[in-house]
Automatic annotation (TrEMBL):
Residues forming coiled coils: 17-58, 108-149
Keywords, sorted A to Z: Cell projection, Cilium, Coiled coil, Flagellum
The organism's taxonomic lineage, starting at the top: Bacteria, Pseudomonadati, Myxococcota, Myxococcia, Myxococcales
UniProt protein name: Flagellar assembly protein FliH
Pfam family, one: YscO-like
InterPro entries: Flag_assembly_chemotaxis_eff (IPR053716), YscO-like (IPR031869)
Length: 162
């Protein structure tokens, strides 16, 4: 059988498809990692809110037990504001992380499209190779039939001469 003249292209398309699949897989892993980071940040924010409420209540109890005045209440207010500021920082991190997750999701979709395109191109060249192989087999079969016919004709003519 003659060599397939587009074999190099077929090999390139197979390699491109494998690379696209690997890039898609890596993008999915990165997206999952970013989602985990976001979930951790959200859990951290919830933990901080609960912790703030508990600390403020505890601080308030201590102040009431000591009989604290206005300065104690002001200190408690500053303490609570500082904790709220920390929560706001975590909330900003969460918003930033949401953008990172969106970007990772867009990258996953882009990689999915590239993978689909690579698979489509590979399928097209494989279809071309199947057609080539079928054509070569058909030509070989026709040559064999022609050879058989010639052999049959030669035998027939040889019998007729005798």
């Amino acid at each position: 059988m003659p060599p397939y003249r587009l074999q190099v292209l077929l090999d390139m398309r197979e390699k491109a498809k494998e690379e696209a699949e690997q890039a898609f897989s890596a993008a999915i892993k990165a997206l999952e990692k970013e989602k985990q980071v976001q979930a951790q940040l959200e859990a951290e924010l919830e933990r901080r809110k609960k912790e703030r409420k508990a600390k403020v209540a505890e601080y308030f109890q201590q102040m009431m037990a000591k009989g604290a005045g206005i300065s104690g209440m002001n200190m408690m207010g500053r303490f609570e504001e500082r904790l709220k500021d920390e929560e706001a920082q975590v909330a900003l991190q969460i918003e930033h992380q949401k953008e990172v997750v969106k970007a990772a999701a867009r990258l996953v979709e882009q990689r999915r499209m590239l993978m689909a395109e690579a698979a489509k191109e590979l399928k097209a060249i494989e279809k071309n190779k199947e057609t080539f192989v079928k054509q070569v087999r058909q030509e070989r079969q026709q040559r064999e039939e022609l050879n058989q016919e010639e052999i049959g004709n030669a035998l027939f003519l040889a019998r007729q001469r005798k």
